[in-house]
Amino acid sequence: MFSRHFLTLLFVIASLAVRAQDDEPGSRVGSSIIDDSTKNVYGPTTSLYFYESDFFRNNFTLHTLDTAAWNFHRFNYVQRNNNFYQDLGNIGTAIRPVFTEVTETIGATPGFTAYDLYWNSETVKYYNTKSPYANVKWVLGGKGRSYARFTFTRNINPRWNAGFDYRILQIDKITARRSKGDRTTKSNYFDFFTSFQSKDSLYSLFFNARRDFIQVDENGGVQTSEDFKFSDLFLTQNIQTWLTAAESNDKRGALHLFHQLNLASGLQLYHTSDLYRQINRFNDTDPTNDYYDFTVVDSAKTRDRTEFKSFRNEVGIKGSFFKAFYNGYAAVRQYSIDYKYIYENNFFLDTKKVEPYVGGRIGLQVDSLVEVKGWAEWMLDDRYMVQGSIKTKWFEAAAKRSVSTPAFVPQAYRGSHDLWINRFGNTEGTELKGNLIYESKRFSIYPGVRFSTFRNYIFFKEDTSAVGQKVLPYQTSGYQTWVSPELNISLTLFDHLTLKGQGIYTRILENSDDAMQFPEMFVNAQIAYADIWFNGNFDFQAGIDAHWKSSYYAPGYDVTSQQFYTQKRYLTPSFPVIDIFLNVRIKHARIFLKYNNSLMLFSNYGNVPTPFYPGIRNLVDFGFDWSFFD
Q: Do residues 356 and 380 touch, judged by C-beta distance below 8 A?
């Protein structure tokens, strides 16, 4: 595997280097009649992108495409989010944040969040291009872990652009893999986007359609004995998992429309419409497996299904007054949920309802020194969300507070192996965070702190002494409060060698019902050498990434309900994850080579992010992306 990836890497680098050399002035022979200014008209500076959120706040900013080699190797979802997420050890599996965050959604939600990150990370970009733009990204991960992404966009005319993104995940199992192509995850994501602006900029429109489907072969974790060792989880032979025929599906689709009309200078009328659908399934052809501790629906096959729909319309005014932005709106959101095994008529929960909202946003931009933002939303009862932030050259601070509706699944669920009915109340959450900023050419430091508290928090918990169902939802009556001092530093030596570090210490001050479990220490570090050669046509970064967190009772995962749960049975080991990487950019192409979990060369076990789900071994990943501008 290593030799094949290495030879492929050398071939691609050599091919690109030859092309880059051919483009140098004076090196062309047969086509020297075309000068460089004619040939190199299009590039990253002629295909620009922007976000709807910036346009909405009247802070329209065109961004240059990212073609830098820096940290290009961080392609998986945990590492691209600086290790602040916990998955089941492989790409495309169930995933959750390590540290609980205050929600911004105060209305009804389905409660299936294990695959949220794969959906939420696909932020739609809109483009303004002088020529057709396409980008191909392909990652060949060790042991059959493949990721591919294709983007295409072009301006139909100077005021109208359209394009699409397509992403594929084909991820082989890392535990009990029978052969090549024995997948644990298969996923297809697609979006179409378009933006339009009238000649006089009186009218603007943004539209996108998105769809994502994730299919995961669930194994329930590795079977172990009472006296097992961590190394048993990483055996390559004679290893057994609990489930062999189970499958989870998460299917989502959305339509989004935003359009606005300029009524006067500094005043716009807008309308936003969002249609959303989410379907979660759990299937198994072996419903009598010993993994299941409870049976509700006695059937030859498990076929659980839950569908959630919502349709939100928001109408409001917005505008700018000098350096200030203002916005006020009213919104209506319809939702419905369909349980396969629950008859919703006369049910105690409102499975179909209309939610009213009012809210507003503010902003203030004082040159590049001070930026202030705020957002508040109210549901005309005791549910609300308010947040604000300030960013200056010297410090950053943010605050968020919400009282939100309990999700559907913790309140009521009936599946083949799960059953509960609860009357939960609203959840309260508050978060305060801030940090100081000192930046210089060679040294930067960002000391900060985060304070979080929750009340009436809803969570899933394992009770090993229970007869029957051992994982059930609970709502605490007390508080969960913790404080997390944090330090980020960056040091550059000899202009090219950079050392970066991040350390977080978390102290839980109050923890009613032991609802929260966090690592006491959380560390990210990187040492890398980077340089740019050949008149800017070739740049590279080579170095080492390290991540470590202290031992803690990491949440377990219940496959039938697709929920992470608090447990006190398994203490996750504090194993450092150290990756060696090389990133290269040659003109409009980027390449990376990464050796994962290098310490497993000297150890018989590795990282275990979730109880009984081992992480990836010491594997080699290779990937590239190539941008085309004409």
A: yes
Query: Cα–Cα distance between 232 and 623 in angstroms, integer?
Result: 31
Q: Which two tokens stand for residue 259?
A: 């359009």
Question: How far is Cα 85 from Cα 7, in angstroms, rounded to an integer?
Answer: 33
The pTM of this model reads 0.92
**Pairing of the two strands 419-421 and 443-455:** unpaired
Strand 47-50's sheet: what is its strand order? 63-64, 47-50, 126-129
CA 461 to CA 190: how far, in whole Å?
Answer: 35
How far is the C-alpha of 352 from the C-alpha of 516, rounded, in Å? 32
Structure tokens at 278: 């989410």
CB-based contacts of 467, cutoff 8 Å, min separation 6:
none
Q: Retrieve residue 373's tokens.
A: 């933002």
Cα separation, 347 vs 342, whole angstroms: 9
pLDDT digits (tens, 9 = 90+) for 5-22: 444 444 444 444 334 434
Spatial distance between the Cα atoms of 506 and 483, rounded to a whole number of angstroms: 6
**Locus of tokens 């993994």:** 291
The DSSP string of 478-537 is SEEEEEEEEEEEEEEETTTEEEEEEEEE-EEEEEGGG-----SEEEEEEEEEEEEETTTT
- H or E segment at 6? helix 2-22
Which ranges of 23-111 does DSSP label H, i.e. alpha helix?
36-39, 52-56, 77-80
Nearest one of 216, 194, 214, 190 to 205, comparing CA atoms = 194
Cα distance from N-terminal residue to C-terminal residue, the chain: 35
Which residues fall within 8 angstroms of residue 408, CB to CB, at 6 or more apart? 108, 109, 110, 111, 308, 337, 349, 351
Tens-digit pLDDT profile for residues 467-491: 889 999 999 989 999 999 999 999 9
**What are the C-alpha distances in Å from 368 to residues 51, 323, 371, 393, 596?**
19, 12, 7, 8, 40
Whole-number Å distance between alpha carbons of 490 and 445: 6
Q: Residue 129: is its pLDDT beyond 90?
A: yes
- pLDDT value of position 368: 79
- Please say whether the beta carbons of 564 and 460 come within 8 A: yes
Q: Which two tokens stand for residue 71?
A: 């940290």
Interatomic CA distance for residues 333 and 344, integer angstroms? 20
> Residue 27 above 90 pLDDT?
no
In whole angstroms, give the CA distance from residue 414 to residue 178. 34
- CA gap 249, 189 in Å, rounded: 14
Q: How far apart are CA 212 and CA 110, in angstroms?
A: 17
The DSSP code for 407 is P
